Each structure stands twice: as structure tokens, then as C-alpha cells.
DNA sequence: TCAAAAGTGTTATGTTTACACCCATGG
DNA sequence: CCATGGGTGTAAACATAACACTTTTGA
């Protein structure tokens, strides 16, 4: 019975995280210089432990680097080319996550050399981590066009101009602000606050926040930006 | 250096395939009764071999059951709950594939008890295979709304009524045939043949085939059926 | 000749795009 | 008072949805 299992070759199983952040200007990915390869930037990663699920492992690894919990985390793809890690064959399940940069800044771990890189200006990456990032960007674009996940990258309170800048950054374009706000507001997912952002512009922009009740139930289609995208979806 | 690797626990790595087929009436999944669990229907699956990539392994396993090559195959998700396989911890990377039932019928392997089941009438499945099928259905719906993959489930030559029946089956609905054919034909992806289908209806429906040149390059949005769907995408 | 499926067109409604001016405020 | 960014409306083009009748032909 169990013979069938015993004959099989086991493999190392790693998790790698593409951690996205938005600093108000451009879409960033958090990279580290870790252990073995001091020379090369790589994604934050780690090993699956015997008692945890893939998602738990990805969350734990993310927590180790950022100190953040309750972060948006989604499985991206399993990478398993035989020699992707040249030392020992390793299967890596990549996750991508969306973090609020402000939350992170204060808690940044000193244990890692970590830096945010613009997605349009990435250094060479370890192994197939470059492919992982490319795929994650496609997936983020695909997903953000259909599901209201962009908010995960912004602070609790944000202005419409900030939100537009985020979408501009994600899609590397410049949306029309009139059409943009009409489209966003038509989802009824945002609550306008009385408070205005001060200090950035003279006039000040109203803050909004996500209507979390609606946000929870919202699974179906949301916006429809979908630009050209040949995602794995 | 390599110490870091040696301390890590390796895991068995399996592949499971959700094989979709369309018999002209309803959308089917191919299930087997295999080895250990003679009582329970399960997805076709197998183990990753040391020399092959995940996708190669999935293709090999699919070939073993169906004899088919050059089949549409897409990675679905990695399943890794600690006790999903109660005997030995196993990570399974699920793939879904779209096959032409007619091609399969003739080559069906005798080595497996295999049967097509309607997606609306599935038996209880081994382990978490039910979750895999559910997710695969969602993914197929999501994907088929945006990418012209439906054709993978039909013969080379097919009629518009057949294609509509396929989409009706995928989305469990009844599209308006006028709107449907307008929408499909507006993609310019189909070539109308001179030949009519005989024997099924009195009048006979024209055959079409995919314009494969256009099919190749077509990666961007295609149709826009997208019904409610909370896919992992 | 008639039953059964194939094929086709129009209108109304909603969505998307393109586009430009006034507003509020701090300096 | 003026420069800067915030905020809003409208019309044209396009896409979608709803809907019914005519055509073909084998039995």
C-alpha cells in the first residue's frame, strides 16, 4: 500500500514572495540580499515547514521580513524547472502580496538587507525570480482590473488622486481623472470622509475609505480596465 | 553553504489533472479509480520525476491516461494542506486540461477505470480533489470568458450551434444565439467552411474552424462573458 | 407539407470615451 | 492674486441585451 509512496523521490519545497508596495509615486517590489547569494537581489523566501500549509508558510515568511500580518496574499504559481535552483532541486510556490508601505516602514526588519525597487527598474534577480516578478505584475494587473484589491496598497484613508496615481502606476498609463473617479465611485465601495488631505495641494483632496462591509462580499467583477494581458489566467 | 538545504525536510510532489471534455451536450471531467483507493473516484495523478518540469510531468501523466499529446494544459494551483493526503504529506500541483473527447475515445487506456462525469453530477472524490475540480471550473469559466480556449474542447471543425452549446454548458446558461454568433464572429477568429454538418438537423449547420494564425497571436481580451466568479485570479 | 433546427436584423439601453472649465486654498 | 492641484458634466461612439420571423430540408 504505502510502497508506492516510499519509492518516490521527495523534493525541497520553498516559498517565494513578490511583495508589492506603493509609495505614492510608483509601484515597488521589495527585494532582499539573503544568505547564500550576497551578491544578488532576490525575493524573500523560505522553506515549507512540516506543520504548516503553503499559505501559512508564505504568511510566516512575509511576517519575518515585514512584521506584517493580515496582509493580502495570493498564490501565484508553482515553479519547478529541474535546475531552477542549481544546487538542489527545489520546487518553489510563489505568492504575491500587497502591503501598505507606511505600515511596513516603521517595522522594517534589520535582519535583512531589504529595498524597494520600482517595477520598471529592477536589478537582475536570483534564479527564476525575475520570471516570478514578471508573472506577478501581469497577475496584479489582471486581478486589479476585476477585483478591488488596489486598496490593499494604500493607507486606510486615501484620496481619489492617490488612487488614480496607484492605478496609473499599476498599468503604466494615465487614466482620465473624470472617467476614473466616475468609475471608481460607481462601485459604491468608497465612503467619502469629511476630512481633507492637507499639505500636499492648496485645495486639499477629500479622503475616502473602503466600505469594508461591501468590500468583503464583493467578489464579482468590479472595474474593467483589463489592458492587453496574457496572464496565465 | 549547502547546510541550509540539508536541514530542510523534503516532501513528495504529486501532480493531479482536471481533464475537461465536451460531448456535445455537457461539460465533463474525466475521473479514474486508481491504485490505493479502489473505492473512490479521483483525478488522474502521478509523481514528479527528477528529470522533468512540473508541466512536463503533468503532460506525461495526461498522456498515460489519454494517449493525447499537444493538449491544452494550464497550471491551476498548488495544494499543500498538511494532511490533505493522510498517509504521507504530499504537495500536489494541479493542472487542468482541455481535450477533444473524440480524439480520446479511440485511444482510451484500458489500464485505468476511467469515466467521464458531468460537472454538475460528480461523485465524492479522493482527498481534496473535489476542491481542485471546483477551482478548475471557476478558472475555466473565468478564462474562457477572456481567452479563446473553448475551441480546445471541440473537434477541428465545428458548427456555431455546437459552440453555443459548449458555452451554455460551461456557464450553465442559455445564451441568445443571435447575440452569441455576432459576438463570436466579431472576433474574426473563425473561418467559415463551405461544408455543412449533415445528419443532425434537417437544414444542416455550416462548419467553422479556428483561424490558427490569429489564434496564436491572440492573447488579449476576447469575449466578455465573465459571470460572477471569485476565482483565485 | 411540416417539424426541427439554422440563420439573420433592429431597437433600446447602458457603458465607455473624449474632452475643458471652474473651484479652493496657501503662499 | 495667482499658481497648483481638485473637482465636476456632457455629448458621441460603441457595446450589449432583448426580441421574432424566415429559411432549409429530410422524413
Automatic annotation (TrEMBL), chains A, B:
InterPro entries: NUDIX_hydrolase-like_dom_sf, NUDIX_hydrolase_dom, WH-like_DNA-bd_sf, WH_DNA-bd_sf, WHD_NrtR
Pfam assignment, any one: WHD_NrtR
Domain of life: Bacteria
UniProt xrefs under SUPFAM superfamilies: Nudix (SSF55811), Winged helix' DNA-binding domain (SSF46785)
Domain Nudix hydrolase: 12-140
PANTHER family hit by this protein: ADP-RIBOSE PYROPHOSPHATASE, SLR1690 PROTEIN
Descriptive protein name: ADP-ribose pyrophosphatase YjhB, NUDIX family
Organism: Spirosoma fluviale
